[in-house]
Amino acid sequence: MSRKVTDKGVERRHVRTIVVGSGFAGLGLAIKLKQQRRDDYLVLERGSEVGGTWRDNTYPGAACDVPSHLYSYSFALNPDWTRSFSKQGEIQQYIRGVAEKYGVLDKHVFDCDVTSVRWNAETARWDIESSKGSFTADTVVSAVGALCEPALPDIKGINDFEGEIFHSARWNHDADLTGKRVAIIGTGASAIQIVPTIAPKVAHLDVYQRTAPWLLPRFDRPYTTLEKLAFKHIPGAQRLSRAGIYAARETQVVGLAKFPALMNIFELIARAKLRWEISDPALRAKVTPNFRIGCKRMLISNDYYPALDRDNVDVITDGIAEIKANSIVTRDGTEREIDALIVATGFHVTDSPTYNAIVGPDGRTLSEVFDQQGQQAYKGAAIAGFPNLFFLVGPNVGLGHTSMVYMIESQINYVADALGAVAGQGLRTVEVRRDAQESYNAELQQKLAGTVWNTGGCASWYLDKHGNNTTLWPDFTFRFRSQTKKFDVEAYSTTRAAADQKAVVPQ
Q1: Domain of 203?
Q2: pLDDT tens digits for range 87-98
Q3: Pair (134, 14) in one structural domain
Q4: Same domain? 130 vs 270
């Protein structure tokens, strides 16, 4: 159990394992540890609630683009989903319900912003500083996720804007946009949900587009009473539905990663949708992408194009030169007055500020290591040079076609098995070997080289500043599941704990 220790005059609370973040990943690991009767852990969460990105992204129209039955834990199926693609509120309610059902909320420290995670060579532990005090841990698991740090555009004058301004992931619900002149910067996954929701009520909406996205139909509908009864009362019905969705989604990998030419089928569908939903040829030309479908994340919507076709909506493709107190000036010199500005420019993924908080044995932050050698990990879970540190949703675990919850559960199994090996074998430190990591990543990059993500002619957030795809998994997800089924201690350098430090394995 946790206890207080004093280190150089600083009183710290010590636990065997600290998990940072409680979205799908951190919460899932907490549940797994409880199921294994490993009680000596804490989850440090900077928010006041579980949920991660689904707690934070409360903008109008927020919803998932993966079908509900697949976007959930395999051990906590939900027969009560109201529709095939769930909205934000329902997903957040589901996550909170799972946390309550499995009784792990008492293992959380909420409103706890972790500011420093530093390796202590003397104690062979991690020293953690946070807004809720100091901690030490034998092992730290980072589960902060990829979509947690909003990215703000570097535009001259943005801090001088005097109207309402907020990022889509920090939506100001006190701001009434009704009858106002509004601008939104960005046309990614969040923007295509926001635009149709606010367009009917604002006086005018300017949509600033740098790159047009590819859109596919959104096959969303409410579940019937009969379907919900079947999911709840017929054994296997929901798992069969989930398996069908999984199989259908997995077939996209063939086009995305194996044979990019097959993506032409999706492009034909997207082009037909574009012609059908936008009547104005000039507008249609503006929002036609100039890269191959799949290179950037494929988006799904049935109301984005019709919203752009409204009389009170303009799509602006000229770059922004400057933001003034009450207007935006584009590079062609046009100045457009606005009352409110919505920034929907995504997140820091390959350059997450959270990497600056992690300091390894050699004094370098994880950010510095990534900057010097590129962002890479072993199975997305461990990084050479950082002992007793694991990641959930680390490098090259992301997906562009199916449910991240499947990948998260795969990693949870791997990390939980690693923690079990550390305890069971009496290990003091465990650190992935650099040669194992480099060999793993060489194979990854070789697989990624021919994918549409790398060859499709776009500049996406999948790529880091070195041009490497450090975000996506380039194969079938069941192959990742196979790779992470068991912790492979032979790929790691280890040291053994003293006899009096050896962990007791729960019975």
Answers
A1: 158-213+251-342
A2: 999 999 999 999
A3: yes
A4: no
Same domain for 24 and 171?
no
CA-based torsion, 356, 357, 363, 369: positive or negative: negative
How many other C-beta atoms are found inside a 10 Å radius of the C-beta of residue 442? 11
Backbone angles phi, psi at 394, to 5 degrees: -85, -165
Listed range (208-222, 308-322, 343-357, 439-453) with the worst mean pLDDT: 343-357
DSSP 467: S
Grade residue 502 by pLDDT with cuts at 50, 70 and 90: very low
Give a yes or no: residue 283 inside a domain: yes
Domain boundary among 312, 342, 372: 342
- In this predicted model, what pLDDT tens digit does every residue of 321-365 receive, in sequence order? 999 999 999 999 999 999 999 999 876 655 677 888 999 999 999
In a shared domain, residues 8 and 33: yes
What is the pTM assigned to this prediction?
A: 0.93
Same domain, 207 and 105: no
413/492 Cα distance (integer angstroms) = 17
CB-based contacts of 18: which residues, under 8 Å, 6+ apart? 41, 42, 43, 44, 126, 128, 135, 137, 139, 140, 141
The angle, 0 to 180 degrees and rounded to 10, between the axes of the packed helices 404-424 and 24-35 is 40
363 torsion bin: left (phi>0), alpha (psi -120 to 50), beta (else): left
Indicate which CATH number applies to the domain containing 318.
3.50.50.60
In terms of Cα–Cα distance, which of 445, 404, 476, 455 is closest to 295?
A: 455
Domain boundary among 281, 311, 342: 342
Average pLDDT of span 427-443: 97
Note whether 298 and 438 are same-domain residues: no
What is the C-alpha separation between 402 and 431, in angstroms, rounded?
A: 31
Q: What angle do CA 410, 387, 357 make, to 5 degrees?
A: 90
pLDDT value at residue 106: 97
Q: Is 149's pLDDT higher than 90?
A: no
Do 124 and 182 reside in the same domain of the chain?
Answer: no
Average pLDDT estimate for 255-264: 88
Continuous H helices in 12-148: 24-35, 53-56, 88-101
